[in-house]
Structures are given as structure tokens and as C-alpha cells.
User: Which sequence fits this backbone?
């Protein structure tokens, strides 16, 4: 599959490197051409401009800070038509109400994926890969307590969801269907909540029982 990645940071490196290793063609475009070229050389991808990456990809990954989205979406205006666009971003900002010395976050924006879809209405946006840090995706560890790490996917287009699910599996991860794009805001909220727990030294995984003990039955 041809994958265009817009961004040259840690997430672009982690996901792009994994997809190159899985046999996909990857082209990196970034606001800094030098950063794009450096990352492409490091992971065995091609380098180009932001527009090059958008035109190249059957799937386009947006791996850049939220405050850069408007500029980038203007740059690629019209080039994302019909393409699958993966949004892995989170709009974090420091929690001003956190106790002194504590590291905590809140969302500066509650529905980034929906904003991207509104700005690129002919693209097929899928929210994915936003729950964990880039280092998790770059790691070889995939199975924890006999359970493969899952990647929730939110989107409205079945074909786009299938493409992204295949890319998740190529990274030896487990795709998890999480509903339409209107539910992506909940993934963004889960991310800021769990990352805050991790930064506080708490085991976010321990707050959820496994499925077989969850009693996920609708009350009558």
C-alpha cells in the first residue's frame, strides 16, 4: 500500500518505520524538508513535500501537532479527495488546576477528528493510534498479559476502516471497531485521561477488568 505521512516526529517515525518494515511504500512530507529527508533516510522511506505525501498516499497519516493542522490542511486542499486519512493527534494542554508539581493534561479541543473531517469533507477520516505514545508503537512488545494490544478505530467509511485495520494488523496489533467518527471525541478524552494517570504513576490498565469479568449486559 502507498502511505503518505505528513509530519516527521516520533509518531511518524514509529508508524512509518513499522509500515516500511511490513513492505509498504511510504513517503514523508513535513513543514521542514530537512526533517522529512532525515526521517525518510532513517526508516527507508521516500521524502517529499507535504503535497507530495498527500498525493502519493492511498492512506495519508496526519502525524503532527494539532496547532499545525489548519496550515497543513490548507496546503493539501483538494488532494485528500477520496483518500483514507488517519488522525492520530491529541489536543493536550497542561491542566492548570492540577496540584503543584503534578503533571496532568486536559483537552484544548474536544473533537479534533471531526474538525479534520469538516475541513476535508471528501476525505475518509479514521481516528486511530492516539491512545499510546509513539514509543509504544515503536516497541516490539505487542502482547501484555496474554492479550494483544488493541488499536480502537473510529470512522464512517467501511473501506477506509478496512484499510486502516489492515495497517494495524501489519504492525502486529489488534484493530478494535469503536464506532463512527462522531465517537472519536471519546477516544481523545480516553487518551488525555489515561495519559494523565500514567504520568501520575498510576496503572491505567488496572482500572478495567478483562472482558469476561466486565458484565457488559444492558440492564433491563
Assistant:
Amino acid at each position: 500500500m502507498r502511505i503518505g505521512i505528513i509530519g516527521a516526529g516520533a509518531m511518524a517515525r514509529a508508524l512509518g518505520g513499522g509500515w516500511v518494515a511490513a513492505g509498504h511504500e511510504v513517503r514523508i512530507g513535513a513543514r521542514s524538508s530537512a526533517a522529512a529527508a532525515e526521517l525518510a533516510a532513517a526508516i527507508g522511506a521516500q521524502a517529499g513535500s507535504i503535497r507530495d505525501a498527500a498525493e502519493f498516499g492511498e492512506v495519508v497519516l496526519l502525524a503532527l501537532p494539532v496547532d499545525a493542522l489548519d496550515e497543513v490542511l490548507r496546503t493539501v486542499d483538494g488532494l485528500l479527495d477520496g483518500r483514507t486519512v488517519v488522525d492520530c493527534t491529541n489536543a493536550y494542554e497542561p491542566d492548570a488546576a492540577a496540584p503543584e508539581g503534578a503533571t496532568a493534561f486536559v483537552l484544548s479541543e474536544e473533537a479534533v477528528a471531526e474538525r479534520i473531517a469538516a475541513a476535508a469533507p471528501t476525505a475518509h477520516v479514521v481516528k486511530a493510534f492516539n491512545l499510546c505514545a509513539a514509543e509504544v508503537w515503536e516497541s516490539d512488545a505487542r502482547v501484555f498479559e496474554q492479550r494483544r494490544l488493541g488499536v480502537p478505530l473510529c470512522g464512517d467509511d467501511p473501506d477506509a476502516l478496512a484499510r486502516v485495520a489492515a495497517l494495524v494488523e501489519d504492525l502486529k496489533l489488534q484493530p478494535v471497531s469503536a464506532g463512527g467518527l462522531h465517537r472519536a471525541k471519546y477516544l481523545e478524552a480516553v487518551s488525555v485521561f489515561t495519559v494523565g494517570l500514567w504520568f501520575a504513576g498510576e496503572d491505567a490498565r488496572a482500572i478495567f477488568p478483562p472482558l469476561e469479568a466486565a458484565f457488559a449486559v444492558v440492564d433491563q
Q: What stands out?
A: The first helix runs from residue 10 to 21. The helical segments are 10-21, 33-43, 50-56, 69-75, 112-119, 134-138, 158-170, 184-199. The chain is about 35% helix and 20% strand. The mean pLDDT is 95.
